[in-house]
Write a structure and sequence with these properties.
The chain is mainly alpha-helical. It has one domain. Helices cover 65% and strands 8% of the residues. It contains 5 helices and 3 strands. Strands 1-2-3 form a 3-stranded antiparallel sheet. A hairpin with a 2-residue loop joins β1 and β2. The longest helix has 27 residues, at 56-82. The chain is elongated and about 55 Å long.
Length: 143
């Protein structure tokens, strides 16, 4: 029988523990590395036969994937622990800047750096709010 325990933004299944805030921060950092390192591969990828540079569909897919993972991890903290909209607002501003980066390529670095900072900050704020709560509000929490 599989036992599941939910505690402070984490899910423990047997000995496997998933911290959704840590996953969101990791995805944000991976996105930042992707965006920073990708120009280094501009000259080598066409030689290898890959054409993902400036591929609009790929870029939008990555932003949507980051949004889905990030929103899920923030939702868990909001619903189960702190009920604060601040992480969602910060995260939404970061995602909006990522979309702006796609729309205005000439200014993409001006949008990218604050976008990454805002997305990571949202997960950090969510993490701190979850740790600060340390308990559920009996009348409105579902666990």
């Amino acid at each position: 029988m599989l036992q599941t325990i939910i505690f402070a933004g984490s899910i423990t299944i047997m000995n496997l523990k998933i911290n959704w805030d840590a996953l969101g921060i990791t995805a944000s950092v991976a996105c930042a590395i992707h965006c920073a390192v990708l120009p280094l591969f501009l000259t080598s990828l066409p030689v290898l036969g890959f054409e993902i540079i400036d591929n609009i569909a790929f870029e939008y897919l990555m932003i949507i994937l980051a949004f889905a993972i990030g929103a899920y991890s923030l939702y868990h903290g909001w619903k189960k622990h702190h009920h604060s909209w601040a992480p969602f607002i910060i995260f939404s501003a970061g995602i909006a800047l990522l979309f702006a980066k796609q729309l205005w390529h000439n200014y993409q670095l001006w949008f990218l750096l604050p976008a990454v900072v805002l997305v990571v900050a949202a997960h950090y704020v969510n993490y701190r709010l979850c740790r600060k709560a340390k308990h559920c509000h009996e009348h409105d929490c579902s666990h």
